[in-house]
Amino acid sequence: MNKAELIDHVASNANISKADASKALDAVVDAIGSALSQGDSVSLVGFGTFSVSERAARSGRNPRTGDTIHIAASKQARFKAGKGLKDKIN
Questions:
Q1: pLDDT digits (tens, 9 = 90+) for 1-52
Q2: pTM of the prediction?
Q3: How confident is the model at residue 54 (pLDDT cuts 50, 70, 90)?
Q4: Banded pLDDT at 63 (limits 50, 70, 90)
Q5: CA 75, CA 37: separation in Å to the nearest integer?
Q6: Residue 75's pLDDT is what?
Q7: Average of pLDDT values for 48-65?
Q8: Which pLDDT belongs to residue 53?
Q9: Using an 8 Å Cβ cutoff, are 73 and 40 in contact?
Q10: Is the dihedral of CA 13, 22, 88, 31 positive or negative?
Q11: What is the pLDDT of residue 35?
Q12: Is 47 exposed, middle or buried (0-12, 13-18, 19+ CB in 10 A)?
């Protein structure tokens, strides 16, 4: 399912226009992104938790040349599925 299909699904289930569903989806995604950028986590009970984890700096190899390169430390978004989502999938 892509974003357009998700908007269609939300619009039909919530009985709202596609424009309103699109605005709502964009607002949710923006709110999650803002919270994660500030280092907070977002927990949606029954669905899951979005959080930020840190990756340590490490060395790697350039596959083309074989040279050792330094990979800088970074942050990444993580998602842990909640019990309700796991039950729905299984």
A1: 999 999 999 999 999 999 999 999 999 999 999 999 999 999 999 999 999 9
A2: 0.77
A3: very high
A4: very high
A5: 9
A6: 94
A7: 94
A8: 94
A9: no
A10: negative
A11: 95
A12: middle
Among residues 60, 89, 48, 57, the alpha carbon closest in space to that of 75 is found at 57
Q: Say which residue the tokens 């986590």 belong to.
A: 41
- CA-closest candidate to residue 43, choices 82, 76, 77: 82
Instruction: Map tokens 């990979």 to a residue.
Output: 71
Interatomic CA distance for residues 70 and 59, integer angstroms: 5
In angstroms, the CA 44 to CA 29 distance is 13
Q: Are 85 and 46 in contact, with CB atoms under 8 Å apart? A: yes
What 3 state SS string does the chain have?
Answer: CCHHHHHHHHHHHHCCCHHHHHHHHHHHHHHHHHHHHCCCCEEECCCEEEEEEEECCEEEECCCCCCEEEECCEEEEEEEECHHHHHHHC
**Given the structure tokens 């800088």, which residue do they identify?**
72
